[in-house]
Amino acid sequence: MSHTADALINAIDSGLRTLFATPHASRALDLPTDNPPLNAAQQRDSASLMRVNHVGEVCAQGLYAAQALGARVFYKDEALAGHLEAASVEENDHLAWTSERLHELNGRPSLLNPVWYAGSFAMGLLAARMGKRVSLGFVVATEQQVEAHLASHMTRLDPSDTRSNAIVAHMKQDEARHAKQAQAAGGMTLPQPVQAAMRGAAKIMTTVAQRI
Question: Is residue 139 scored above 70 in pLDDT?
Answer without folding.
Answer: yes
